[in-house]
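[job 0412] stage=fold_complex status=start
inputs:
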Amino acid sequence: MLLNTEIIYYKSHIYILFDLNALKTENMTTTKPAVVIIGNGMVSYKFCEKLIAKSSNFEIIVFGEESRPAYDRVHLSEYFNGKSAEDLSMSPLTWYADNGIHLHLNDPVQEINREEKTVHTLKGINQHYDYLILATGSSAFVPDIPGVEKQGVFVYRTIEDLDLILAYAANAKEAAVIGGGLLGLEAAKALIDLGIKEPHVIEFAPRLMPRQIDQAGSKMLQMKLNELGLRIHLNKSTSRIGGEDKIDALHFADDTQIHVDMLIISAGIRPRDELAQLSGLKTGTRGGVVVNDYMQTSDESIFAIGECALHEGMIYGLVAPGYEMADVAVNTLCDSEKSFSGYDMSTKLKLIGIDVASFGDPFIAEPDCRSIVMDDSHKGVYKRINISNDGKHLLGGILVGDATSYNMLLQTVKNNIILPPNPEDLILGSRGESANDGSGAMSLPDDALICSCESVSKGAILHAVKEDHITTLDGIKKCTKAGTCCGGCVPMVKDLIAGSLKESGIYVKNVICEHFNYSRQELLDVIKINNVKIYDEALDHFGKGDGCETCKPVVASILSSLWNDVIVKQAPTQDSNDRYLANIQKGGTYSVVPRIPGGEITPDKLIILGQIAKKYALYTKITGGQRIDMFGAHVNDLPDIWEELIDAGFESGHAYGKALRTVKSCVGSTWCRFGLHDSVSFAIEIEERYRGIRAPHKIKGGVSGCVRECAEAQSKDFGIIATEKGWNLYICGNGGSKPQHAQLLASDIDKETCIKYIDRFLMFYIKTADPLTRTATWLNKMEGGLTYLKNVILNDSIEICGQLETEMQGLVDSFHCEWKEVVTNPELRKRFVHFVNAPEKKDPTVEFDTFRTQIKAKDWL
Amino acid sequence: MIINTDIELQAEASIEWFLACNEEDVPENGGACIDYKGEQIAIFNFTRRKEWYATQNLCPHKQQMALSRGMIGSAGESCEPKVACPFHKKTFSLLSGECASGEDYTIKTYPVKLSAGQVFIGIQ
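[job 0412] stage=fold_complex status=done
writing structure:
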């Protein structure tokens, strides 16, 4: 057996390398050699995928102990917010069958007979193997705390665990997680999702995520997690789990205790090496099957990959190195030369919505390096980079709260890129006038690893774009698999696609959809120049096919922005909300929002809103934009409701449209003892100026009467804040899923100048933004950024301001209340029915529940 | 082919035509909803293609009576006519009823007949 071996010396270890060719000829019979895989997790799946891609000369047999085929354990916690077991599945059962893989589920292997080369399973199968792959993964490490056997104590590892947790959490009020690492914090998030208020997290170490981040990073993370309602206890050692049969308390070594009726233990993983031990394979003293650089165990026909494998004293608890091991094992089986030489443990993850990343050597400290640290507890961002003492190279770092620069930093470490003279720019951003031109990814060397999960290099992506002419993200995903695992590299992949197209001289634009090969800005221009007034005309001249739900609302919005016609006249090209001039809600009823400019309303009008809501049995709520929303209106009732509202002096609030929503205000100098100017009057003036104007997305404004900023104007698309000398104007702020503060456009300006600038700003946005792009994203993508925009608006650098002002004035002058048009037009009113053959009949499937003395929509079925 | 036609004819014979509404009751290039003995049917006036379609009004995704309020259009080189539910933009072929957004839903489709400005829906 050992005839064809060679001995190599590598990293001061001695390895004996077996010639597998020799092994194969020895075992080769007329049938294909059998590769048996024990375990059906992500790494096992990846092994199968890679093996069938590389060779069809093997018979593949997989034994899994769970009832489901391999699923995505990395995103396990998404099971609690709606993803089903099927969503998490790596591939359906048919995939195995289609590829000739024999998959045995629910059938764990119980014994390996190395002499006869067979495995024996629980269900009694005796399976011969030529090569055996151990992909048994790991189990949750449960520390030896008295009471762990009590009811209500769980681990967090499999979908079955999650189902048990789900069932038990329904009756639990207080819960805790032992373990402040990645999985522990995910488990705590899951508890919040399950309705547990303020779960406890108990960590033995003095900091959270001790493997990834340092003390200061942990402090920042802890602050952010506290805000989200987690109660973190560090330096805590649990001595006992209290309770009769069920857990009712956790007792700690420092004689304190907390009351809990549920506990999830997530204190780490333990490699599953029982089978290997039983069969006499070499295992580590602290667990794990010892493997060489080719993933072979001490028995050369048995391999171990993933979390059960112990390579040079390391267990790799991440999926990316597991995939790499699978690749090495496949290559070894197929006689290609590939070895495993450790794996970079850099990670970036989103933990409960908080970015956490560490890369390179995060913990290296002075005097071996110099560290630059940014610790901003105001924004909740902590960044640390470690640079070499000569200032030339990046060695590693930690990011908490904002990891947008992770990919670039990681590439800088991996490719040993020489640092710029001011390396602090890497974490602080460029602070001079020149903005980042986004060419970052293109400046990397070709062998830079972009997708580390699937080992896809920059060169491979560029090749796919340039040689195979694949220009979409989905195409690249299919062709190279980049971005298909954790998705962290997707922004870089996008940049590379755009960058390499640009390099090839191909003009990159975001076309609207398959029917219009134009960007929104181009389409707006051609529609304007050609005086197009209706959707079908635009489609006939500039598009193809019959349109769709993407281009119809875009064109409808462009037509409105250009001509400001009554939108209901072209109702079927409008999105449902614009078609019925109301917001469709769960259950198919609509909500009604009259305009309340600046949030100022008289008692009489308040009473009328109350009376109308009562009359039509509507649910009422104050909105975030300081107005009153009335929910649960049948489509048939909308015109009558609006008739009454209009009679009382209300008008449409355009809450249904991609249009100006509200201009929020604080009470200002008329009442407030701090107020500098009358913010309410200014807010009303501005809201009435821009009401009804259609834009690529909704627009919100705010006016604050002093620097205390009670109107939260800096979170709006345009925000105005009173100063001693006038007003400061901020633009491109955004709440929503990716909040962004508005940036200062001009300071201490008077009202007229302020309005002039907003006119120019909004009109420029309306004319140039992509569909459904808020002003913040529009600015982020703009070449030249704020500096450019300032030049356009303040200095008229592209000589467009006069035109923008005229066009805006045109829209302001042509304002009309859309609901008034409907209410006074019997033909338009007729459209507001549920059944055209029974106009009086309301939708009988609409049902409400009673909730806090009001109605609420029935839950989704 | 001949056999197919026979089957179609047989099928035709067993269809009961229900008078749904007048042509002008359904907006051009849009939809409307019909009450047929307690069943809700969405009917689409695809003026641009000079075609009419009818489907169930219920979107199977979240069980909402909404397809008649969706936008219609076409997909792909073959210009497959489709409707998008206003709730979450799941799209369905108006020909086969199959969901084009990748899910395993199918909606019921009905034949439509026009006669003297009146719209009939075929019920089998």
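[job 0412] summary: The CA atoms of residues 67 and 77 of chain B lie 24 Å apart.
[job 0412] exit 0
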